From TrEMBL:
<dbReference type="GO" id="GO:0016887">
    <property type="term" value="F:ATP hydrolysis activity"/>
</dbReference>
<protein>
    <submittedName>
        <fullName>ABC transporter ATP-binding protein</fullName>
    </submittedName>
</protein>
<dbReference type="InterPro" id="IPR003593">
    <property type="entry name" value="AAA+_ATPase"/>
</dbReference>
<feature type="domain" description="ABC transporter">
    <location>
        <begin position="2"/>
        <end position="232"/>
    </location>
</feature>
<keyword id="KW-0547">Nucleotide-binding</keyword>
<dbReference type="InterPro" id="IPR003439">
    <property type="entry name" value="ABC_transporter-like_ATP-bd"/>
</dbReference>
<feature type="compositionally biased region" description="Low complexity">
    <location>
        <begin position="237"/>
        <end position="259"/>
    </location>
</feature>
<dbReference type="InterPro" id="IPR027417">
    <property type="entry name" value="P-loop_NTPase"/>
</dbReference>
<keyword id="KW-0067">ATP-binding</keyword>
<dbReference type="InterPro" id="IPR017871">
    <property type="entry name" value="ABC_transporter-like_CS"/>
</dbReference>
<feature type="region of interest" description="Disordered">
    <location>
        <begin position="234"/>
        <end position="259"/>
    </location>
</feature>
<keyword id="KW-0813">Transport</keyword>
<dbReference type="Pfam" id="PF00005">
    <property type="entry name" value="ABC_tran"/>
</dbReference>
<dbReference type="InterPro" id="IPR051782">
    <property type="entry name" value="ABC_Transporter_VariousFunc"/>
</dbReference>
<dbReference type="GO" id="GO:0005524">
    <property type="term" value="F:ATP binding"/>
</dbReference>
């Protein structure tokens, strides 16, 4: 569904992502793990077509995000860690606006909005302006705006931060349902217990380089994702756990990169 090949992104003389290749298959939830500054957001924003990159090719459902961005974006939803919403709109206006942009038919949009707004507990707030929402409510509105589109690929940056436990539980179910319907999910998280329990595949990035990717069962083995992750931090080019795909040694980021 999502194929990233040799992605490289610099910010000035800082290399944020270095020659990263990753495949996110349909029908599976892939967790993207890495320390602060490792390059997760840069990778996700590049794949979402909202950040230009220096080298590499990214395709979504066969559409090149650079040469065919409209087709790629049509099948993709991206939920940033800090969604920038139109605060002057009401929640319902915002969702209707998104539904207009993505051509969600009038016949189904109302039931989709009702279904997801109710599921995430913001149905009673849709008449209020987004500017009056709490941080978590804004996050839920952004989430609902992504889910009503029933995207083929859903990418989320730290989606569980700030969500209440009921919403977090609901989100786990919705991510699984999307994959069961043939879609694909890629999300970044620092909550390794959630990643281990929820994800079919795990990709670990360190200092801009992908160091491990593979099925969760192979990456984790008899250990825990936390232990695997902590061990890798001591040897970031490191030995991959048995069954996981060790990533080829690559040149590290330029001096000045932080991860
Ligand atoms: N706009 C920017 N200008 C300069 N450097 C940036 C910019 N955005 C990110 N970086 C740098 O790129 C590197 C990767 O950042 P990125 O935000 O992708 O990391 P991350 O893995 O998402 O981190 P976190 O877990 O803290 O969200 C970091 O060294 C960061 O300082």
């Amino acid at each position: 569904m999502l194929t990233i090949t040799h992605l490289t992104k610099h910010y000035g003389d800082k290399t944020a992502v270095a020659d990263l290749s990753l495949t996110v298959p349909p029908g599976a939830i892939t967790g993207f793990i890495g320390r602060n500054g490792a390059g997760k957001t840069t990778t996700l924003r590049s794949a979402a077509g909202i950040l230009d990159f220096d080298a590499g090719v990214i395709t979504i459902d066969g559409h090149d995000v650079r040469t065919d961005p409209v087709s790629a974006k049509r099948v993709t939803a991206f939920l940033p860690d800090n969604p920038d919403l139109y605060e002057f709109m009401s929640g319902l206006d915002y969702l209707s606006f998104i539904a207009d942009i993505y051509g969600i038919p009038a016949t189904s949009r109302r039931s989709l909005i009702e279904r997801y707004a109710t599921a995430y507990g913001i149905d009673g707030d849709l008449g209020s302006s987004v500017g009056s929402y709490s941080h978590g409510m804004k996050q839920k509105l952004a989430l609902v705006s992504a889910l009503i589109r029933t995207p083929r690929l859903l990418m989320l940056d730290e989606p569980f931060v700030g969500l209440d436990p009921v919403a977090a539980h609901r989100l786990k179910g919705d991510l699984r349902s999307l994959c069961d319907a043939g879609g694909a999910v890629l999300f970044s998280t620092h909550i390794l217990e959630v990643a281990q329990a929820l994800c079919d595949n795990i990709a670990i990035i360190s200092a801009g380089r992908l160091v491990v990717s593979g099925p969760t069962s192979s990456v984790v083995g008899d250990s825990s994702l936390e232990k695997v992750f902590l061990d890798l931090q001591g040897d970031s080019a490191g030995a991959a756990p048995p069954g996981a795909t060790p990533q080829p040694a690559q040149e590290g980021p330029q001096p000045g990169a932080s991860a």
